[in-house]
TrEMBL record:
Organism of derivation: Mesorhizobium shonense
Residue ranges annotated for the FAD dependent oxidoreductase domain, each copy included: 5-265
Keywords annotated in UniProt: FAD, Flavoprotein, Membrane, Oxidoreductase, Transmembrane, Transmembrane helix
Residue ranges of domain Glucose-methanol-choline oxidoreductase C-terminal in the record: 436-491
InterPro entries: FAD-dep_OxRdtase, FAD/NAD-bd_sf, GMC_OxRtase_C, P2Ox-like
Cofactor(s) in the UniProt record: FAD
Taxonomy of the source species: Bacteria, Pseudomonadati, Pseudomonadota, Alphaproteobacteria, Hyphomicrobiales
Protein name: Choline dehydrogenase-like flavoprotein
Transmembrane segments: 6-32
Length: 505
């Protein structure tokens, strides 16, 4: 096979969106995806299959540093983790792009401002057909283009919850969502959060940007292609070849540009496992790593599930996930430091609770779920060089050093008080752990200084001119909102940069 101009490794939010941004450029582009398309089966809408039996979880184990092995919640399908995401496509707040002091330390500034990034947020919202509403959330940053679609409507019990929070003087707002609710519900009366998208209901990486990209006949997708390592040129200044396995065969490609979009953990792992020039395959610190920052600064939001339960009234919502609350995003409500974001989870049921509460009888779990409004509390995890992803032979090792837990404790306390004030006598909460790594980021961060960041502000590796890393790994901060839209916006920005600097004839 002739070498393409560009190879994109991974078809998740980063890889699929940069492919869409490069469509029509005239470049020949190959997307290598290790997984296969997600099949449509009855498992896709079965809470028992998904949450109890773990039908879709990967057949791999990672290891805690100095500890036990665990089964991670990463997914390997066309579209990546976005096939299961909650479809929340929200912007970082303007303040997130500047240095911001938290209870647990300082969140550093991005290498560019919100104002510079804003047009790419607007383009990403259009590409992902985001449903939303402006003017409800006091932390909402400037939008140059309004949402093209009205927000997904609240169900009656959620409209009541919105009114209850407003009654406390708070500002509940519609979540910006990549969901066609009518299409989603045609395939089953469930929520979409953590459910695999086998139809057109969710606008994920596959149904959104990848579909748009593949209209270009110069862009192709190969599945079942597991990239093993990248080979540097003899002088170490570029990537000479991609080595991958497909259907048991070893294959090699030598494109002009390599775009690594395998996800924050796997992109870092691939770079760490690849040989440094002149060191042999086993030696050196890996690729793009003269800063010694590859794999470091791993972040994954500090988050908890919170159930507001009223045994006197049922919550009959099917999908539920339409509200957020950012009153505590920029301060604790008392003039103190930021806490975080609150948003609805998809509607839980007894099977979902059973996955976390093993001993309770099923009827009790069903009753609890049927009378609860289910919330997700999310706080910023701060970058720390000792919070890191490492490799040990064939093993992936995670050393996650959580930070800023004071914010999660504060948000949990204030929201428990708020829900009780709204009339919910029982409020339960439980933190999420490392098995729920849906917001992984920071492992190959961008920055202005090659001594402290592997990537420049356009996600080009400082060490290798023809290597870009475009996935959650580039994020210098986690903020306290879902990262998908920020990854997509930067992917479009980088695609535009590549067009101007690499493809302009």
């Amino acid at each position: 096979m002739a070498n393409p101009d560009i190879v994109i490794i991974g078809s998740g939010i980063g890889g699929a969106t940069i492919a869409a941004g490069l469509a029509g450029s005239g470049a020949s582009i190959l997307i290598l995806e290790r997984g296969e398309p997600l099949p449509a089966t009855p498992h896709a809408r079965s809470t028992r299959s998904i949450f109890v039996d773990g039908h879709y979880r990967p057949k791999e184990m990672w290891r805690e540093a100095g500890g036990a092995a665990f089964n991670p919640g990463n997914y390997y399908y066309v579209g990546g983790n976005s096939k299961f995401f909650g479809a929340v496509l929200i912007r970082y707040r303007k303040e997130d792009f500047s240095e911001l002091e938290h209870f647990g330390g300082v969140s550093p500034a991005w290498p560019f401002s919100y104002d510079e990034f804003e047009p790419w947020y607007s383009k990403a919202e259009q590409l992902f057909r985001v449903r939303g509403s402006l003017g409800e959330d006091p932390t909402e940053p400037f939008h140059s283009i309004p949402y093209a679609f009205k927000p997904v409507p609240d169900e009656p019990s959620i409209a009541r919850a919105r009114a209850e929070l407003k009654g406390l003087g708070l500002h509940p707002a519609s979540l910006p969502l990549g969901v066609d609710i009518e299409a989603w519900l045609k395939d089953g009366k469930t929520g979409w959060d953590a459910f695999p998208n086998t139809g057109q209901g969710k606008v994920d990486a596959q149904t959104g940007p990848l579909t748009a990209a593949l209209v270009d006949k110069n862009i192709r997708l190969e599945t079942g292609a597991h990239v093993d390592w990248l080979e540097p040129s003899p002088d170490g200044k570029s990537i000479a070849a991609i080595h991958y396995t497909q259907n048991g065969s070893q294959k090699t490609l030598s494109p002009k540009l390599v775009i690594l979009s395998a996800g924050a953990v796997n992109s870092a792992v691939m770079l760490l496992r690849s040989p440094s020039a002149g060191n042999g395959k086993a030696g050196g610190k890996g690729l793009a790593n003269s800063s010694d920052q590859v794999g470091r600064n791993f972040m994954n939001h500090n988050s908890s599930a919170m159930l507001a339960i009223d045994p006197r009234r049922r919550n009959d919502a099917v999908y539920q996930k339409t509200l957020m609350l950012n009153d505590y995003y920029l301060s604790d409500g008392k003039g103190g430091k930021p806490l975080g974001n609150v948003q609805l989870l998809g509607k839980i049921d007894g099977n979902m609770l059973r996955a976390n509460v093993k001993l309770a009888p099923k009827f009790a779990l069903d009753f609890m779920a049927g009378h609860a409004v289910d919330w997700y509390l999310m706080c910023e995890d701060l970058p720390d060089p000792e919070s890191r992803i490492m490799v040990d032979g064939k093993e992936i090792v995670m050393q996650w050093r959580r930070s800023n837990m004071q914010s999660l404790e504060g948000l949990t306390k204030v929201m428990r008080e708020n829900f009780r004030a709204c009339g919910y006598p029982i409020v339960l909460s439980r933190p999420f752990d490392k098995r729920t790594p849906s917001h992984q980021c920071g492992t190959v961060r961008m920055g202005n200084d090659p001594a402290t960041a592997p990537l420049d502000p356009f996600c080009r590796a400082y060490d290798h001119r023809n290597l870009f890393v475009v996935d959650g790994g580039f994020l210098p901060t986690s903020a306290a909102v879902n990262p998908a839209l920020s990854i997509a916006a930067q992917a479009l920005r980088v695609a535009d940069h590549i067009r101007k600097t690499e493809l302009a004839a």
